Each structure stands twice: as structure tokens, then as C-alpha cells.
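Batch manifest, entry 17 of 40.
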Amino acid sequence: MTTDVQAYFTTLKDLVGDDDPLAILSETPFRIRSLIAGIDLAALRQKPRPDKSSIGEIIAHLSDSELVFGFRLRTIFAANGAPLQAFDPDAWASAFDYHNRDVPADVELFSALRSGNVRMLRRVAAPLMEHTGIHEEWGTETADGMIRLEAGHDRNHLAQIEKILAG
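Output type: C-alpha cells
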């Protein structure tokens, strides 16, 4: 793992601290809905700077990341030590035209995927949380570690949305 990736992971895990990652994961769809309630589509697509993501693009990223997160967890729960493929979020943003996506539909998709993933996590046998995946870029991580990373990822992007809204 590169030092940049390690620093990013440390930052994400620090955003979780001692909080319950499942509680964070459960709350995020409601936080997103609350934050963007009453905001028109043009404002959701407005980039704060040309090199920064709009709120809509952040939500599209969260939606697609949730799909990947759920697949990775299911993969390692079923096969301890399974290889995990990397994905390039910038390539996905370009390929799937995040800027022009249907923001309300992405909120719904993210919420549905997250709900299914949280239900799965609440039902999975405790020993499976220690299963690992071997990511092609960042190495070995336990399911529990991946959950903490995802919770920190949520908090990171929620803070970005709040910052955009604060102007």
C-alpha cells in the first residue's frame, strides 16, 4: 500500500473514531435526504469549483461506491482471502456521466443499496467479520476494517456536501 493510500485510510478511520460504524452507515441516507431537501436540481449540479465535485456528483459516487462495497463484502464473506478488484472513481464519474445523472434517482438507489447492505451486515455471523479480502491496490483488509472505512467515507462525503451548502 502506498503512503498516500495509507494516509487516506487513516483519515477515514479517524473520522469514525469510537462511533459505531453500522450506525453511521444506517444514518447516511437520511442525512443526505435531510441535507438536500428543498434544493433544486441546478444547485445540486453546481460545482463549487471547476476541479471539485457537485453535490449530485458526490451522491452518484456514493451510489456507485455502495454497489462496490456490497459486492466486496459479499465476496469475502463467501470466500475468505478473496481477491478484490480496484475501481477508479474518476473513470466511473466520466463513463457514467455523474454530472448529468438523475440526482433523486441516485439518492433512492444509494438508499436501497445501503439498506440491503446494512441488513446483510446485521445478520452475518460474527466470525465472518474477520474474513479478509486482498485488494489489488491496497492489500489485505478485514470485513470489519472495510466497514469502518466505508463509514469514514460517508462522513468525508457528508462533510463535503455540508461545505458546499455552506457556500
